Amino acid sequence: MSAEREGSRALRLLCLHGYRQNADSFRARSGALRKALRRRAELLSVVAPHAVAAQQPQPGEAASELLEADSRGWWFSNPQEETFNASEEASSCTGLEESLDLVADAFVKYSPIDGLLGFSQGAALVGIICALKQRGDSRFPFDFAILIAGFKSRATPHQSYYQESITVPSLHVLGETDRVIPAEMSRELASVFMEPVILTHPGGHFMPASPPQKKAYLEFLNQFLK
After folding, report:
1. 172 catalytic per annotation
2. Which CATH fold topology does 11-222 show?
3. Which residue, 74, 81, 120, 131, is the most exposed by fewest CB within 10 angstroms?
């Protein structure tokens, strides 16, 4: 099925950036992906509601990762210090409900939304939103999800989101040498989904868009062209 056939329109993807990023930095870092999906998908970015203070890098992160102006996050695994670590098994957390409300508002603002695309913490949030959709949450009308360097939240209050298999069609993109979100963490999230499509690449913590990945993205998106 061709995205360029008469009467077709590009798919609209709502994009959720990673921790310590914002909509502008996500747009800059997703340039190659945007080019790869040109005329097939329109990427619409939203910015997370929580400001993030400068902090020490996690394993695999360069110090430059901490220098984003207006760094933002979707929730904090350490509410006292207002920090987040994907590997932290937190007994409490803060910020998720505000982020869900913000994304729900974006669905209204940018309607129609065909799919969600998330990177890192944004992909973890996409996983949670897929679980809510599975439960019948009407705030999030979309058809599919692309999760790049995603992971299951380790926060105790979030574990209920992973108790039921998720039938939302999903593409999970993971880097075999990702030191920030190891591939095993992304596979763990993918295992919650029914019939997930797994796309691996040899690189690290970024959004890949070389020819092999471009082909996989387009094959996945072709299913949802209207």
Report:
1. no
2. Rossmann fold (3.40.50)
3. 81
24 noted as active-site residue: no
Partners of 116 in beta bridges? 14, 145
**Domain map (residue ranges) of the chain:** 11-222
Q: Which of 20-24, 55-59, 173-177 has the highest mean pLDDT?
A: 173-177
Average pLDDT of 140-148? 98
pLDDT at residue 226 above 50? yes
Q: Taking each helix axis from N to C terminus, what angle separates 96-110 and 121-134, rounded to the nearest 10 degrees?
A: 80
Please, what is the Cα angle at 87 between 81 and 93, to 5 degrees?
40
pLDDT in tens, 63-74: 444 445 689 999
- Active-site residue among 120, 153, 170, 186? 120
Residue tagged active-site, from 99, 178, 186, 201: 178
Residue 98 above 50 pLDDT? yes
Pairing verdict, β 115-119 and 72-73: unpaired
Mean pLDDT to the nearest integer, 151-162: 96
CA pair distance 214, 203, nearest whole angstrom: 15
Its pTM stands at 0.91
Is 201 considered catalytic here? no
